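Subject: two folds for Thursday's group meeting

Dear M.,

Sorry for the delay on this. The cluster queue was jammed most of the week, so I only got both jobs back this morning. I'm pasting them in the order they finished. Each block is the input sequence followed by the predicted structure tokens. Could you check whether the formatting survives your parser before we put anything on slides? The first protein is the one we discussed after the seminar.
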Amino acid sequence: MGHTDLMHSYMQRREHRLIGVMSGTSLDGVDAVLVSIKTDAQQRVVKVSLVDQVSIAYTPQVRDLVNRLCIPGSSDINDLTLAHFGLSHWNAAAVNALLAKGPYAGSDIEAVCMHGQTVWHAPNPQIFPGPSGDLSVTGTLQIANPSLVASLTGLPVISDFRSADMAEGGQGAPLAPYIDYLLFGNKGHGVAVQNIGGIGNVTVLPGGDDASGVFAFDTGPGNMIMDAVVALGTNGRKLYDEGGSIGASGTICQSLLDALMEDPYFALVPPKSTGREVYGQTFVQELVKKAESLALCFADIVATATAFTAYSIAKAYQDFVIPHTALETVIVSGGGARNTYLLSLLRQYLPEGIVVTTSDAFGVPDQAREAMAFALMGHESLLGRPSNIPAVTGARKPVVLGTITMQHI
């Protein structure tokens, strides 16, 4: 079966089963979800349901390797090449583990929709030599080889979702707003769906009758800085602040928080996106250096890093959301949804009356949302339909996302 046959067969069905696979900027592992998508006669999405999910945590060795790939000068081209193929095995293992749980066999699944592991995101133009003069170039790199995943799973793989948007002048991020509209849209009520993975990003649902008013952007750091501070402070014995207990035991240093909030990213107007290239190792090292000069203890540094994430989210809402939306509810997903101290600070920093809850309350586990989003994008791709939102990414036009790699016969 070729691409055309696959797409033709797909269009004839009213219920579709796809597997979404996501590896986030927290570098914690691979999440795979089996999603059922029901459509009407015009192939409009009627219902998106999570059937099952699997998460496979990276080993310390893999996490360290991927982390070094995200730090300029810390790895070489051989590391990148091996990781590109090595992480394919991790993605395939998550898919196969999901299939092993049932209730569906591989023959019941129409495609794997794989995001891959982001190792570098460069949405801001840089000069690159061209055939007839200097070029202004942007880019992004997600690794895990789709041909190898297709071989290991026996399924077609849709991958490289961000490149088509960037080819049309977009930032390639964020890409999840459409599924947020389907899962969390509440007509007549302003809702913000705040993902807190390695990076924080928000989808704003103003409450209209369609998705035309939806907008989204990266709010700034999510768990990335908190996780790095905890790993440094415990010599790697802990990789994150479970439940926020360390942060809750410390005291926020307001002067350091104020200094952190001077970061120029927060003044940029959406559409905008960011990543580990901004809030990675160098940023954390400078933060810890400042904290130590202020004689802060470990718990105080974690508390302040947690407050930085919470306050930067609230500030983004104050600047770019609340002026345009009657915001009533914030729905938090991602690993940050399990940090009760972070959620308490977010409630504290937001205006009174705004309810902060988690995606779990809506039947969407916090680790499932982004993988579900890529399953839905793959669905749109198989129908030949765009799934980027230019008002969100800054692209010149809507485009079909992803590249299809057929299974090996």
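Second protein, same layout:
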Amino acid sequence: MNPLEEKRRLESEAENSRKGLTLSEVAPMAFESLKGSLRDEGKAGRWFSPLRLHVLPALGAMPIEEIRQRDIEKALQPIWKAKPATAKKAIQRLGVVLKHGAAMGLDVNLNAVVNARQLLGNQDHQVQHHPALPWREIPKLYQSLLPANAVHRALMLYILVGGGPRLRPVRYATFDQFSGGVWEIDGELMKGRKGKSKSFRIPLTTRIEQLVHASKQKCISPLLFPSPQKGQTHIAPVSDQAIENVMRQRQSEFGWPEPYRPHGIRTTFRSWVQEVDPSLYAVAETALNHQVGGIVERTYARNDFLEKRRALQERWEAHLLSA
């Protein structure tokens, strides 16, 4: 047989074998090709879960080439306004899967997602910010925590740094990250896409160094805050939920009017800075790992205000220890 004809025959067979692939079959392929750009290669399951929970039960059995906007509208209508953030993620992920199917040579309707958005309409959704503990109340929270408890110590460190790096770097903190008066956090632990986040430096104060030293005395793992759970085959860090549960307990004990959570401590810290010294705007924003200024300004001004942030953190500590 002519080699060219044989190549065409094989390509035709491969194309025919792909016809009839369902959404449930293509979705894992799309995820597999994408996960290298996701944090921890998507092992946490957060990228795929909106598809798994809200799209595949309704559309998973359909051949991907047959999916139209009305199908998508019907699948997402129940959550479009009830769970707007989740619905947006679900339809965005579905769009990624459809594009992957098109790249495979399938006759996918790439306009289906855009048209479905039009049919679903406006979500009338307003962003709900995390309730923030008033800055005058945070000394009471900090002083109620028990240094002997790994979960409490994790929350103590998070409060001491004003929530700047967010919870994940605190949970995964290891002793070798702390040296020379600085906590050096790898960019992979910071918020953002894999490979896009930069490393982040946090100045160490006396109180933070004491906390790290106390953790080292109690731990046999590289982690500052290993999970206290028993029966684990490997040493894992304390969980987000465990830290949040401490805040839930304090809500009951202290009679907080709102469900304050760890993420809101970032706003608590920022509000305190605004109250005590508004001129430290850039220093406070940098401490929270926020970008300051436009892209041109950031290109030339790369100062991370390390020593000014150290002085600010010491003032923050004095507030945390106040009556």
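Two things I noticed about the second structure. The longest strand covers residues 182-185. The mean pLDDT is 87.

Cheers,
T.
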